[in-house]
Model the fold of this input.
Amino acid sequence: MPEENKRKYAHWLRPDTIKLAEEMYRRDNCASRSEYIEKAVHFYTGFISEKDSSQFLSKTLTTLMRGMLDDTENRMATLLFKLTVEISILMNVLAAMADADEETLRKLRIKCVEAVKRTNGSISLAEVIKSQRGNR
Done:
């Protein structure tokens, strides 16, 4: 924006805000504190008006966040795999010991789905034993 188009305005700012702008405008290669504040206003306006604010996030931050999410996804996948293996072992042991028909298993599945929904997945062996014994 050419200098001749600029006008002076009075704005109320806290002293610490002015001090911060004074300290930072040189780091941003601005010629003046006013230029720094003007750039900050344009940046923030773009940030809040964009639906996808990723262009305003630093690439380093975006890369870091993506890496953290990838690591979390890998850990979760590994844990789910291990859990599935353990459940498979448990089901095979129970199938070898139990003589349950398909109708009993269907009713048990319905009961278990309801229990998981009701407890948000927080089920303990003690609660299942109480339920099986009719103490619930």
